[in-house]
Amino acid sequence: MLQDVLLSDGRSIQTPEELHLLLAICRQQGAHEVTLSHLNNTTLGVNSQVAKGEWSFVLQKLETLKSLQAWRQLREYCSELLAYTPSNESPGPDEKLPNTDSRVFCDDWAVWCSLFASVQNADESEYVNNPTTVDP
Questions:
Q1: How many domains does the chain have?
Q2: What residue numbers bound the domain in which 24 lies?
Q3: pLDDT tens-place values along the chain, 136 residues long
């Protein structure tokens, strides 16, 4: 309902501030699944043109996954963030320099805390007798 109106043509979310407002409304209503859906969306999500690579959206996604107790998804997302390395290509005129790339997340404690929480709360059966989770 509300999301259809907010995302309809002529009323589309176009700035990070508008996206922050939409996510805040969803959180206040306890619609964590909807929040996560928006953050995963290619048009509005963390990696979208609207989000513009703002770190605050990554933090919101981490918090949303914790609220949903989606421990496996949280672990996978944290692992993805920690494994990210910027490309060695020269940045274009509108791109950030690699050393200021906002996607270099490994130095943020929020990612590590989220990773620890995901492992701590994970179902033990994921790790017991599962050779795919153990590195050789």
A1: 1
A2: 2-133
A3: 455 555 554 468 889 999 999 999 999 999 999 999 999 999 889 989 898 888 899 999 999 999 999 999 999 999 988 887 666 655 555 554 444 555 556 668 899 999 999 999 987 666 555 555 545 4
- Secondary structure in 3-state letters for the chain: CHHHHHHCCCCCCCCHHHHHHHHHHHHHCCCHHHHHHHHHCCCCCCCCCCCCCCHHHHHHHHHHHHHCCCHHHHHHHHHHHHHCCCCCCCCCCCCCCHHHCCCCCCCCHHHHHHHHHHHHHCCHHHCCCCHHHCCC
pTM of the predicted structure, to 2 decimals:
0.74
Let me know: does 105 contact 58? Beta carbons within 8 Å. yes
